[in-house]
Amino acid sequence: MALRVRPLEAPLGAIVEGVDASRPLDPAVCKRLLSCWREHLVLVLRGQALSDPQLLAFSRLFGELDPPGPNPYGEPFLKQFPEINVISNVVENGRPIGNLGAGEAVWHADMTYVDIPPKAGILYSLEIPREGGDTWFADMYAAYEALPADMKAAIEGKRCVHDASHNSAGMLRKGYKPITDVRETPGARHPLVRTNPRTGRKCLFLGRRPNAWIVGLDVSESDKILDALWAHAAQPAFTMIHKWQPGDLLIWDNLSVLHRRDEFDPGSRRIMHRTQVKGTETVA
Ligand code: SIN
User: Fold this and answer.
1) Which residues contact 115 (CB under 8 A, 6 or more apart)?
2) Is 272's C-beta closer than 6 angstroms to any atom of ligand 1?
3) Residue 267 within any structural domain of the chain
4) Which of 79, 163, 189, 207 is 20 to 30 A removed from 116 (C-alpha atoms)?
């Protein structure tokens, strides 16, 4: 079956049909998939049926895998497949089988608290609640391009610290202390404006708002700029929503897209398996 791409009626994202991600892909199909991912930033493949080894093999089409960072419990959720992160609220035998619970996961990009963050995130849904748990994506190229000129000038050349200590559900990762002064937040310090080395196009590179600090500024001045940037970046004009079905496989550009997840009923079950693809260069 030939690969077909249907852009969403949204500023970013496309549905890709005609790909069975459980099977080895023809090199031409692979090439097209990669170029669609670069163009649309979020790809949605519905109706997949993947084992963990098949998810890993598909993810490796995008590059070498980047294992997840430390979770609150201090060990991989799937010991046999440490490159897979489990995102789930399910608790079995008194122990969470995955990360992030059932609450909101705030806007973020994955693992930007390291010097070379993953370039792609891949999320595969196994079990989905009837309501809630939708995932939102925001295009940071469009957000940067729509910034007023004075804000572009204010952030040019500035770096921001990306908090390593908490996950997007606000949980402290194992081995970290709560933050009392954002000037001491642990994590990488990246430029607020990233330039795509392939295309020269600029995007906002915000990571996550909690515990962020624009290096060198007074905390109040930094907070003022960051609050304005985040209010701008999360506007509906730059976002798409994904309403999950079991068997959905999403691939996003982690260096130019932010995502967040709505809360859902903690009494329902949501199980997702996630991989990430290693970035190849520092953010510049
Ligand atoms: C994540 O933030 O990586 C998980 C998103 C989701 O649970 O939909």
Assistant:
1) 188, 282
2) yes
3) yes
4) 79
Task: Using the mean position of ligand 1's atoms as its centre, give its distance from the Cα of residue 135 in Å.
Answer: 7
pLDDT digits 0-9 by tens, 192-218? 999 999 999 999 999 999 999 999 999
Q: Which residue has the tokens 């608790």?
A: 91
Q: Tell me the sheet residues that pair with 95.
A: 92
Chain centre to alpha carbon of residue 149: 27
The answer to whether residue 283 sits within a structural domain is no
Instruction: Please indicate whether residue 155, judged by its CB atom, sits closer than 6 Å to ligand 1.
Output: no
- Classify residue 157 by its DSSP letter: T
Q: Is 87 in the pocket of ligand 1 (CB under 6 A)?
A: yes
Question: What is the number of other CB atoms lying within 10 angstroms of the CB of residue 120?
Answer: 24
* Amino acid at residue number 31: K
Q: Would you state the pLDDT for residue 176?
A: 94
Residue 186 lies in a domain: yes
pTM for this entry: 0.96
3 state SS of 130: coil
Closest to 54 measured CA to CA, from 81, 15, 16: 81
Task: Examine residue 282 and state whether it is found in any structural domain, yes or no.
Answer: no
